[in-house]
Amino acid sequence: MATAKDDISLLEHLDISQLNCLNEEPQHDLKSILAGKKPNTSPDAYLKSSADAQLLMNIHFNQAVRIRTLVLRSATDPSRGPETLKLLVNKPAISFGDVEEASDEAFAQVITLNEQDVREGRPVALKFVRFTSVNSLHIFVESNQSGDEDVQTHINAIDVLGVPVGATKDLSGLRQEE
Amino acid sequence: MPLEATMIIIDNSEYMRNGDYTPSRFDAQSDAVNTIFQTKIDSNPENTVGLMTMAHKGPEVLVTHSKDLGQILKAIHTATSKIGGSIDIPTAINIAQLALKHRENKNLRQRIVVFVGSPLQAAGADEREMVKLAKKLKKNNVAIDFVSFGDGIEEGESSVLKSFVDNASSGDNSHLVSVPPGPHLLSDLVLSSAILSEDRGIPPGAMADEAGPSGSGGTNNFEFGVDPSLDPELAMALRMSMEEEQARQAAEEQARQSAGDATVSTERADDAAEIAADDDVMLRQAIAMSRGRDADMGMGDEQGEDEEMDEEEAIARAIEMSMKQDHGEQKKQ
């Protein structure tokens, strides 16, 4: 297995316009913690679920990436941090109906975090082979540390580590010349 | 200018044959569908609108994600021949959600507009189930609007729909509009309601007061029931005539007041001529009061009438004087 030392934060390859999250609070949405294209450090900005504890984050990249490590941090309120995460890759149109009934085999990976993990934002190693060409990563937060489905989930920061695949096709830096 | 994919669910139950809305409930609803379609498409060229029915044999999708008015009209026409049965709101909403999920452009937000013109039945009337469904919609980021009319606005049901909207709304994106029968058009009220306010570029907060004469607005709060943008000259003439009438009424009012002052002053003059003015006035007032009481008790009717006659004379005199003053003013003018 390749060493993780040449990994970079893949947040710089995010496609912000495609970024969306289901069941988020309008004031505390996924964009507020990812729009900076680097892990959020402000304690005031966080992602919060709305109707219940679940969240469905759809994170799109502007080019294919290999993901090796995922970091989720809920420093301000670890008791509301995410517990069970289910990851999917390259499924641009999913809703809660698709993920709630699906069996664990249907997901690329299922992760269970404990309170210590989310407080410190410990990196979680992913099954590398399943994340070799990711255009969009979907994180389904099924439950949070409180164990109560009516307690809203808080997430302060998300980071995705890995390497971009092949040549860049990021053209967002180009501007039309006069 | 929201970027939205909308699914309109229309009611085609037997209740829609009722004629309490002009021309009939179903036709009024068709007009409203047309209005919503046009407004949504006009507000953003990428928006799409679909149409489905929720009664007859079962909920049925007629159009998915179209920008073509012809398709909607055709679907409405098809639905006209399929009026029957009763509505099934939960199933219809679930199907609409599926239809919205498979929209081509994933950037479009999802919205469902439901027309309810018949009483809620079975699962649709069960508030707990409906709230559960509403929460599911909210989780999946689907906004929902209800237009209730006819049998859909009855007290008990509107509370189910109300709690549905309350539970589904995030950031005030879902609305319930009740339209009672009357001389107005269903489509007009839908157009000026909160459902389409955002598409017409009106901030949601401004809906409570005047809508303001925006170009696309059909029936803004222009007081004469015509669209000022369609015929500005007529609107101008109406407004001028209104202002003239108001000015005339104000002048009349003023004249009446000054005439009243005049009569009072003449009375005073008469009293002064009788020397013992104050005493006399007091006496007359006391007599008048006692007479008034008598009249109230049903006695001394004749005297009461006399009193009335005096008052009538006074009024007649006042009017005459004010008329004279009016004439005088007009001559001056």
UniProtKB/TrEMBL annotation, chain A:
Top-level taxon: Eukaryota
Show where the PITH domain sits.
1-178
Q: Which Pfam families does the entry mention? A: PITH
The record's Gene Ontology cellular component field reads: cytoplasm
State the InterPro entries in the record: Galactose-bd-like_sf (IPR008979), PITH1-like (IPR045099), PITH_dom (IPR010400), PITH_dom_sf (IPR037047)
Q: Which family does it belong to?
A: Belongs to the PITHD1 family.
Q: What is this protein called?
A: PITH domain-containing protein
From TrEMBL, chain B:
Biased composition, class Acidic residues, residue ranges: 302-311
Which family is it part of? Answer: Belongs to the proteasome subunit S5A family.
Domain named VWFA: residues: 5-195
Q: Pull one GO CC term from this UniProt entry.
A: cytosol
Q: Give the compositionally biased regions (Basic and acidic residues).
A: 242-255
Q: Does the UniProt entry include the keyword RNA-binding?
A: no
Q: Does the keyword Electron transport apply?
A: no
What is the protein's name according to its record?
VWFA domain-containing protein
Q: Which GO terms describe its molecular function?
A: K48-linked polyubiquitin modification-dependent protein binding
| SUPFAM superfamilies tied to this protein | vWA-like
GO BP of this protein:
proteasome-mediated ubiquitin-dependent protein catabolic process
**Keywords recorded for this protein, A-Z:** Proteasome
Output the superkingdom of the source species.
Eukaryota
Q: Where is this region: Disordered?
A: 202-228, 242-273, 292-311
